């Protein structure tokens, strides 16, 4: 690890400065919490078409992966002529 990497790592692990602490102290606890961690989406917030598209994308990816595995098994068995 070079000196630049060490300096970057130290900067990323640094303690927040006073300006950040003051800003967080000014917010009520609930606002500070919601500002840091957004609430998970509710069922009403999710578009059914988006869910369907994502599901189809995942199914297609799984089918493609299964095809790759079956092709690999065929090659390992010496049945690569039929591919």
How would you characterize this protein structure?
The chain has 83 residues and is mostly helical. The chain has helices at 3-12, 18-26, 29-36, 48-77. Helices cover 69% and strands 0% of the residues. The radius of gyration is 26 Å and the shape is flat. The mean pLDDT is 76.
**Tally of DSSP helical segments:** 4
Structural class: mainly alpha
State mean pLDDT (0 to 100 scale).
76
The major pleated sheet works out as: none
Region (Disordered): 1-20
Write the layout of secondary structure elements.
Blueprint: H1 3-12, H2 18-26, H3 29-36, H4 48-77
Short synopsis of the structure:
With 83 residues, the chain is mainly alpha-helical. It contains four helices and no strands.
Give the tags.
single chain; 83 residues; mainly alpha; 2 domains
């Amino acid at each position: 690890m070079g000196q630049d990497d060490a300096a970057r790592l130290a900067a990323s692990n640094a303690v927040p400065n006073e300006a950040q602490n003051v800003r967080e102290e000014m917010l009520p606890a609930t606002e500070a919490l919601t500002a840091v961690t957004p609430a998970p989406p509710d069922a009403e917030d999710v578009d059914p078409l988006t869910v369907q598209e994502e599901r189809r994308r995942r199914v297609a990816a799984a089918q493609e992966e299964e095809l790759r595995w079956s092709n690999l098994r065929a090659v390992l068995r010496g049945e690569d002529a039929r591919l």
